[in-house]
Every structure is written in C-alpha cells, then in structure tokens.
Amino acid sequence: MSNVSAGAEQISARKNTAVRVWLLCVAGLIAAMVVVGGATRLTDSGLSITEWQPILGAIPPLNRDDWMAAFELYKQIPEYQVVNRGMSLEEFKYIYWWEWGHRFLGRFIGIAVLVPLLFFWLRGYLTRPLGLRLIVVFLLGGAQGALGWYMVKSGLADRVDVSQYRLAAHLGFAVILFAYVLWLILRLGRGDNLQRAPMFSATGVTALAGVGLIFLQIVAGGFVAGLDAGQGYNTWPLMDGRVIPHGLFVMSPAWLNIFENAMTVQFLHRVLAYVVVIYAGLLVSWSWNVSDRALRTTSLIVFFVVLVQVGLGIATLLGQVPISLALVHQLAALVVLGVALSHLHVSVYGSGYEKSPT
C-alpha cells in the first residue's frame, strides 16, 4: 500500500513540475511583453498601427503596396502630422515593426496559455480549482489586449501620444497578470497544488503591504513613461537644484499635478523609491528575528534587488533615459515584484510544503 501511495505522489509531483515549467514560460513571456511594450513607448512606435484586427492583424505588410497602405493610415493621425511629418517609409517601418512585434507577442501568449491549458486539463494534470484559475489567466490576457487598444485609441484623434492614464492602466494590468501567474507557481510548490490554507499574521500583512507598495511604484513609473517625465530634471540626488523643487503644484486643482505635471510625477516616483528602500531595510530588520530561515533569506533578497533597481533608476535618469538601460530598469521592476511575492508566500504559507492528497 505504501509503495502504491509513494508512486502516486511521484506522479503527482511530476505533473506539478510540468505545469510549473509551463507557467514559468508564460510568466517569462508576459515579462517580455512588458519590456517590448516599454520599447514601443521609448521609440514612439505605439501609434504606428492605427487599426485593431485581433486575427488578421497578425499578418504584417507583405509587399510595397501593403506598406504604403499602412503608412497612409498613419499619416492621418496627429502624431505624424505634428511630430513625424516627412518621415520616410523606412523610418515608418522601424516603428511599425516594434508595435507589430508587441501585438504579435500578445497573440502568441494567448496561444501559449490556451493550448497547454487544454492539453494539461485533458490529461488530468490540473485540479478543477487550478484549471479555473488558469482560465481566468486566459480571460485576463484577452482583456489586456482590449485595454491595449483602448490605450492606442487615445492617441489617434486629438493627441500626439497616448493618454498617460491609459498607459499606466495597461502597464498595471500586465503587472497584475504577471503577479497572478507567479503566485500560481508559488502556490503549486512541491506538490502543494493549491491545497494549503493561509496563515494570516503581522508578518504576512507586512509582506503584502510591500507587494502593494512595489506595485504602486511600477504604476507610478507608467505615468513617468506616459509623460516622458524622465527626459527632464536629469540630476540626482537634487532635482532642479533642490531637494524639493519649485513647481510641484502649479496646476489647479492640486491633485491634477500627481498625474499630469511631469515634474511632480518624476518627484513622486523618486520619493516612492526612497520609501521602498526604507521598507526593504525595515523588512530585513523585522525578519531577522524570526525562526524561519526562508523568511530571512527572502527579505535579504528583496532588499538587495531593491537597491539594484534604485541604482538602475538613477543611472537611467542621469543618462537621460537610454533605451537599453530603461528597458533593463523596467524588467528589474518585475524581478523586484517577483521576489516580494516570494517573500509574501513564505510569510503567509510558511516555508514548508504539504503533499497533495492522493
């Protein structure tokens, strides 16, 4: 009987490993999607495709006539007429391929979720709760595509770029999707299969607050990108020659500055970075006195990656937002979120894993 039970546990563990590898690939694709999306913003490529065709849009222009037709559509929007008037077809192709690649990657992620989901479910690799959660992942991915088009539409009529509100929402939604997939991976554990009950405590609440703070900082970075706020005030630690620069609340009403004043948006992004560093330092201090070694280890990792991310942010600012460094900074933000989620998982569920019932 024990041999049968051990064999069943080994089969269950192998199934969970296969599912985890698949979900890790999905998380990696979502991270790549975020980075490519950042590249489309930095290269001003996001408005180069002026139509949303979920199926036919996967086929790029195949000949000169197709390219000219796409170029003519681009010429009708304000970005071309105000910013890029006179650009060549080759220059248009450059920005077009960035946006096409971003959209194609989104379609590919949909396939990378749906096809293995059906395979694993039909083969009995997924419990019903996990299967339903993965269906939610697929549906959220579709909603993210629609939100992306909603963002693009904001720049096709009365603006020369997309709304920073919609850009931040698009980024935030992608980050939520990324975090959800990572959480499913963590919950699977070594045979856990979503069965372990949470242990709510002050440690868990503190870890959850950190995840929320990091998410808020990423969304704030979306507003920085949406307003090109990183292109100005490229000094550190002072900003415009002062610790607290003048002009933070020149707009009325005052709250509007938080979202539409480039100086204020960058300043708040800096302040939030300092808050995250302080939080990470306190997290190490709080965790150091607990008996769970995994909790101490993950808190140290959180502190380390936060310091690296702050260094990348400062370098990006001082370099006036070079594309390569800016994209590394964006990817590192997801790494920070990932390790914070890992710390949260240990805080809530403990470092041990229970075997799935067989």
| Computed CA radius of gyration, to the nearest angstrom | 23 Å
Instruction: Tell how many strands the DSSP assignment holds.
Output: 0
Uncertain residue ranges:
191-195, 353-358
The oligomeric status of these chains comes to: single chain
Q: Helix/strand/pairing class, anyone? A: mainly alpha
Shape descriptor reads flat
Helix segment count? 11
Structure, explained:
This protein folds into two domains: 1-195, no CATH class; 200-353. The protein has eleven helices and no strands. It has helices at residues 2-42, 64-74, 78-83, 89-122, 128-153, 164-188, 202-226, 257-260, 262-287, 293-318, 323-349. Helix 9 (262-287) packs antiparallel against helix 10 (293-318).
Task: Give a brief outline of the structure.
The chain has 11 helices and no strands.
Secondary structure blueprint with pairings:
Elements (H helix, E strand, L loop, with lengths): L1 H41 L21 H11 L3 H6 L5 H34 L5 H26 L10 H25 L13 H25 L30 H4 L1 H26 L5 H26 L4 H27 L9
Helix pairs in contact: 1-4, 1-6, 1-11, 4-5, 5-6, 6-7, 6-11, 7-9, 7-11, 9-10, 10-11
Which descriptors would you attach to this protein?
358 residues, mainly alpha, 2 domains
